[in-house]
């Protein structure tokens, strides 16, 4: 059992549940736009609602993974101070992870937030990150970003005492993954291709109910940090490497504190110290159900967890719009 200080514990615990309110608000707002073909409207609604919800949370937060730079994003931009006042924390947000999926009514869109002590998150620029992740309970270093897909699959199958054909790989359905997908298929593995949403894709490795054994491939770097925060809480291994496309991106990242552009980050280098993670389903997926709207209300399904205790909570909330403050009715 870990030592604890009762007052910090109370703050942490309450904060974790406050975070769910924040992701619920974003998911409820985005849910109005499911399948309506307008991804920007869905995203805007989620950002707006999440920003408002943060005003009621007792933190002195600084956004470090957000919606962009101050001059290009009106809200939740990098460096923005949020919260009612309280412990100094860093915040990573993706108010709607899966804008296109939401616009099409596809699966796996989530509203998500992570929180760390000051300086806890890698300040990931908005570029791609190459990622590999596996679930908890496996020998440390069992998979590696520099290993070929078939090597990672072989090692994973050996550790899980199964055939490669029993393994399910999850990745984004992108042309840039063609060679990796071909290598996995040649090795005999099965693949789940996602339209979008690699935060949920990476987290899936830690959840037996999803059937996913390994995540491979490149996606957004900010999404990589959010996924790392989640795995810090729930267990599992992940490596990430920023994928720079030009010198300008490299120097921009240097300004944000990235000293070695080729570095492979482990999970603790992306999300250090005590972290918390919350997500609410917008559209349904294997981990979270989507928002269900009905007359005068809605049901949301969320996950919230803390690295310190390792407790994972699923929260099913029934919202009664007639009794919610007007500002939070979406
Ligand atoms: C992924 C996915 C996101 O961006 O990170 C992806 O999880 C990466 O970019 O939902 P590409 O779409 O260019 O591959 C999103 O699709 C959007 O943030
Ligand atoms: Mg976003
Ligand atoms: Mg995103």
Automatic annotation (TrEMBL):
CDD domains: FBPase_glpX
Organism annotation: Paracraurococcus ruber
Keywords: Carbohydrate metabolism, Hydrolase, Manganese, Metal-binding
Pfam families: FBPase_glpX
Record flagged with keyword Cytoplasm: no
Lineage: superkingdom: Bacteria
Signal sequence bounds: none
The organism's taxonomic lineage, starting at the top: Bacteria, Pseudomonadati, Pseudomonadota, Alphaproteobacteria, Acetobacterales
NCBIfam families with a match to the protein in the record: glpX
The protein's name in its UniProt record: Fructose-1,6-bisphosphatase
Known catalytic reactions: beta-D-fructose 1,6-bisphosphate + H2O = beta-D-fructose 6-phosphate + phosphate
Transmembrane segments: none
Originating gene: glpX
Annotated family: Belongs to the FBPase class 2 family.
